[in-house]
Design a protein that fits this description.
The chain is an alpha/beta fold. The chain has twelve helices and twelve strands. Helix 3 links the parallel strand 3 and strand 4. Bound molecules: S-adenosylmethionine and iron/sulfur cluster (2 copies).
Length: 340
């Protein structure tokens, strides 16, 4: 059975945020030092996450991505991967991470059945990395990327492109990714979650990214065949492939098949959604799989969200979606809570 929303978009992909904690403080995501964390007793245990994942798989979800916060900070993440791998219908099991803890957990994650890894990397310069991520940990991230490669994981590298901060590094990041056998994906800065410092001036658009890379690396060919994926893929003349995620200037809501589950069991239908749907309460009240499945199907069936398109329509009136005070009052608005 495939659940479809009111724009006929199928539910195919689920991003599971396994923790709201993080060991970095990227300025576009967690600009503050301290946060209001989700209460520990609200966090779903591994069996609860796996149970919900099974319900989603039954509704047609084929791709699962573990994210956060920093997912490798979640105790027993390896066990969760094992539980998810065993679910019928799971075709793709991925992890988005800053890689700092990958040398420690990579091997066990591979053995548990994780398919692939996306690593966030915004700079190759140690001082700049420290400035952008709030911590001087470039070496650890690079060691994590190396570990992923040695273990044979397919690796993607995510870079949020920030005007005047790392846009000059795009050619170097592309060369680095190519040398690592990884696919680089350049992400437009979004005005969502903890991006309280966002302004349209800080966004480097897809068009600017392509112009820069064409100047450094020559002709760029568009590959097409994107389907519901957020990234548009391009190739250099030597065959190097990279992606651009133009969430801000050219959103892709029309094909969006993604739902998000927070660590405390709230279902969000859009990265920009103000409200989520609580699945923890019914789960803990003893609702059976069939009832939970019906509940999720009904929620998805009423989905109308096209958050990024609505934001773009604001044009010059566009400001950060949430202010620091609102984020403190409701941490579910945070990107590190709902999962990027
Ligand atoms: N901590 C992990 C990491 O950084 O890879 C996983 C969670 S993080 C929220 C997931 C992704 O969201 C990262 O690739 C990050 O760069 C991206 N992200 C966070 N805030 C963003 C923003 N304001 N604009 C664009 N991308 C953002
Ligand atoms: Fe942490 Fe990832 Fe957010 Fe950076 S982008 S602060 S690594 S959750
Ligand atoms: Fe999907 Fe919302 Fe992102 Fe649009 S803004 S692509 S609807 S999650």
């Amino acid at each position: 059975m495939t659940a479809r929303d009111r724009h006929q978009r199928p539910l195919r992909s689920l991003r599971i945020s396994v923790t709201d904690r993080c060991n970095l403080r990227c300025g576009y995501c967690m600009p503050e030092e301290d946060y209001v964390w989700l209460p520990r007793s609200d966090i779903l245990d591994l069996e609860e996450v796996a149970r919900l994942a099974r319900v989603f798989a039954g509704l047609g979800v084929r791709r699962f991505r573990l994210t956060g916060g920093e997912p490798l900070l979640r105790r027993n993440l390896v066990e969760l991967v094992r539980l998810l791998r065993a679910i019928e219908g799971v075709e793709d099991l991925a992890l988005t991470t800053n890689a700092i803890l990958l040398p420690r957990f990579g091997e066990d994650l591979r053995a548990a059945g994780l398919d692939r890894i996306t690593v966030s990397l915004d700079s190759l310069d140690p001082e700049r990395f420290a400035r952008l991520s709030g911590r001087p940990r470039l070496d650890e991230t690079l060691a994590g990327i190396e570990a992923a490669r040695e273990l044979g994981f397919p690796v993607k590298l995510n870079t949020v492109v920030l005007a005047g901060q790392n846009e000059d590094e795009l050619p170097a990041l592309l060369d680095f990714a190519r040398a690592q056998g990884a696919e680089l994906r350049l992400i437009e800065y979004m005005d969502v979650g903890g991006a309280t410092r966002w302004s349209s001036d800080a966004v480097v658009s897809r068009a600017d990214v392509l112009r820069r890379l064409e100047a450094s690396h020559g002709a760029i060919r568009e590959l097409g065949g994107r389907g519901s994926a957020p990234a548009e893929r391009f190739a250099l003349s030597d065959g190097t492939v990279f992606g651009v995620i133009a969430s801000t200037t050219q959103p892709f809501c029309g094909a969006c098949d993604r739902a998000r589950l927070t660590a405390d069991g709230r279902l969000f239908l859009c990265l920009y959604a103000r409200e989520g749907h609580d699945l923890r309460a019914p789960l803990r009240a003893g609702e059976g799989d069939a009832q939970l499945s019906q509940r999720v199907a009904t929620i998805w069936g009423e989905r109308l969200d096209r958050g990024a398109e609505e934001r773009r329509a604001l044009a010059t009136r566009r400001r950060p979606l949430a202010l620091a005070g609102e984020l403190r009052a409701d941490p579910h608005l945070e990107m590190h809570t709902r999962g990027g």
